[in-house]
Specification:
Elements (H helix, E strand, L loop, with lengths): L2 H10 L3 E3 L17 E6 L7 E6 H17 L8 E4 L6 H13 L2 E4 L8 H9 L9 E5 L1 H8 L2 H7 L4 E4 L6 H9 L4 E7 L4 E5 L2 H5 L7 E2 L3 E5 L4 E6 L5 E4 L2 E6 L8 E8 L5 E5 L4 E3 L2 E3 L1 H14 L7 E8 L3 E8 L5 H10 L10 E4 L13 H15 L1
Parallel strand pairs: 1-2, 4-5, 4-6, 6-7, 7-8, 20-21
Antiparallel strand pairs: 2-3, 3-13, 8-9, 9-10, 11-12, 12-15, 13-14, 15-16, 17-18, 19-20
Helix pairs in contact: 2-3, 4-6
């Protein structure tokens, strides 16, 4: 039985269906009757968490997304939903769920196809609905970058009606490249806890140069906590979540007024702007530094200088003088790049300048475009231990 068949069968039987092994140990005694899904959420700072999302909440998410599409002139009932993301994550689950709610076609794209643009284009051109129904696709920035690097990848993207882009920040160079090609990107923001998308920027506004993730969907309220953390209120928040290795550690998401604190530092003008994870911020010399923002600046500078670097990851480490300082992992095998990077960042404020630069040819985010920072911290610790 396929993963999708198992999901359909479990939902039809009114069950809570775990979508990954981490969710198998769900505290089902604390859950109301199903149906629903038990789905893994994040864990970039260490520790995988799982959420309980009833089917009703996923239906509400699909309805809000349909309303957003209608507002930009796309009929949800006419679309072809392409899905290159794994079913075990909410970003891969929701294209299939929307197809059920809207009564439209859903086509899963095997992961290997996303790395071979020529084969991807040929595969999609062979679909009966290709060229007849508006094709809609969800991507993470890593996938977008791979497609933009190949002529057939560009040709594929140019035939899409809409490209939602989320899961991680959209680097400025990628955004500029997409605008130059007039690609209908819709940067969006959402999470497992919110049953996917809660805000999205229409392609017209993206192409006009507007940054960020746009306005909240019809069933969502957004506000900022006193420390700048984004808070979300919607009737599709997960019932609760637990740690995969501590199933008894169950926590509700809502406060007394129904708000969920996301953990992302944000601004709300113009539209939703995400600065980075609050739990990923470091405090260096009395300054609060968001590594994700600096990573985007670095990648933009690297592209402008045509340096052979695939990725940059900044990690905070303890420092006796500064409290914390940054260490930069550089996705390249060219040692000369490090000297160029040091020169590029020399004018930066001291708190934002890495104190070490390390070559890491295998550096890459996961399949969803997210950085598993704890894993790379452990890599750095092993490296330091070996050199000690």
């Amino acid at each position: 039985m396929s993963e999708l068949e198992r999901l359909e069968q479990g939902l039809a039987a009114g069950q809570w269906v775990p979508l990954s092994p981490e969710a198998d140990a769900a505290p089902t005694a604390q859950l109301p009757p199903g149906p629903g899904v038990l789905v893994r959420s994040g864990g970039s700072s260490g520790g995988s968490r799982c959420c309980a999302q009833p089917s009703l909440h996923l239906d509400r998410s699909a309805a809000a997304t349909a309303h957003w599409l209608t507002g930009i002139g796309v009929d949800p009932a006419s679309t072809l939903l392409l899905n290159p993301l794994p079913l075990a994550h909410v970003s891969g689950l929701m294209p299939w769920w929307r197809s059920r709610c809207w009564g439209v076609g859903h086509q899963q794209l095997p992961s290997g196809l996303m790395k071979t643009p020529t084969e991807l284009l040929a595969f999609c051109q062979g679909l009966p609905a290709w060229g007849k129904n508006p094709a809609v696709l969800s991507l993470v920035p890593t996938q977008l970058a791979r497609l933009l690097a190949h002529p057939d990848g560009v040709a594929f993207l140019q035939q899409l009606q809409l490209i939602w882009i989320g899961g991680a920040a959209l680097p400025a160079p990628l955004a500029e490249q997409a605008r130059a090609l007039q690609l209908p990107l819709a940067p969006c923001y959402g999470s497992t806890e919110t049953a996917a998308m809660v805000a999205a920027l229409p392609p017209e506004r993206f192409l006009a140069g507007e940054p960020g993730c746009g306005d909240p969907l019809m069933d969502v309220e957004l506000r900022l906590a006193t420390d700048g953390a984004l808070q979300v209120r919607t009737d599709r928040l997960a019932l609760g979540r637990w740690w995969a290795d501590q199933p008894d550690r169950w926590e509700s998401l809502r406060d007394a007024d129904g708000w969920w604190r996301s953990g992302d530092q944000a601004a709300l003008t113009p539209g939703l702007q995400i600065a980075g994870r609050i739990d990923g911020a470091i405090h260096s010399g009395g300054e609060t530094v968001f590594p994700e923002q600096l990573e985007q600046r670095l990648m933009a500078a690297l592209q402008a200088a045509s340096l052979p670097v695939n990725a940059v990851l900044l990690l905070g480490v303890d420092d006796p003088e500064w409290g914390q300082r940054l260490v930069a992992l550089v996705g390249s095998s060219d040692a000369a790049v490090l000297q160029r990077l040091e020169l590029l960042t020399r004018p930066w404020p001291a708190a934002e300048t890495p104190r070490r630069w390390l070559l890491c040819p295998d550096l890459a985010p996961n399949a969803l475009g997210k950085w598993q920072r704890q894993c790379w911290r452990e890599w750095l610790e092993r490296l330091d231990a070996a050199e000690a």
